[in-house]
Amino acid sequence: MIYGKLWLVVKPTVGIPLFLAAVAVGSFAVHVALLTNTTWVKRFLNGKEAVVAVADTAAPAAAAPAAAVKK
């Protein structure tokens, strides 16, 4: 273990719950940020139907080659 000496300073009965609480708070903060800064997450979680953008699949016509210039 890389940080094995850490447990000589911090007791595992304090360090492990503190670490797990920090992970839970961080995860909660990420989810709150997603809900407040996006519009599609709320619709997704509420079960609304997705809006699909349709792309034009027809390729544009190729430009005619330039006429050869005679010298």
Annotate the secondary structure layout.
Elements (H helix, E strand, L loop, with lengths): L11 H26 L2 H6 L26
Keywords:
45% helix, mainly alpha, 2 helices, 71 residues
Task: Give an overview in words.
- This protein is mainly α and 71 residues long.
- The protein is 45% helix and 0% strand.
- The chain has two helices and no strands.
- The protein has helices spanning 12-37, 40-45.
- The longest helix is centred in the middle third of the chain and has 26 residues, at 12-37.
- It starts with 11 loop residues before the first helix and ends in a 26-residue tail after the last helix.
- The relative contact order is 0.05.
Detail the poorly predicted runs. Answer: none
Strand count, sense and barrel status of the largest sheet are: none
Q: How do the SSEs run, as a string of H and E?
A: HH
Structure class: mainly alpha
Helix content: 40-55%
Q: What proportion of the residues form beta strands (DSSP E)? A: under 5%
Distance between the termini: 80 Å
Alpha carbon gyration radius = 29 Å
The number of distinct helices, counting runs of at least 4 residues, comes to 2
| Overall mean pLDDT | 82
- How many strand units? 0
User: What spatial form do the alpha-carbon principal axes imply?
Assistant: elongated
Task: Write a brief caption for the model.
With 71 residues, the protein is an all-alpha fold.
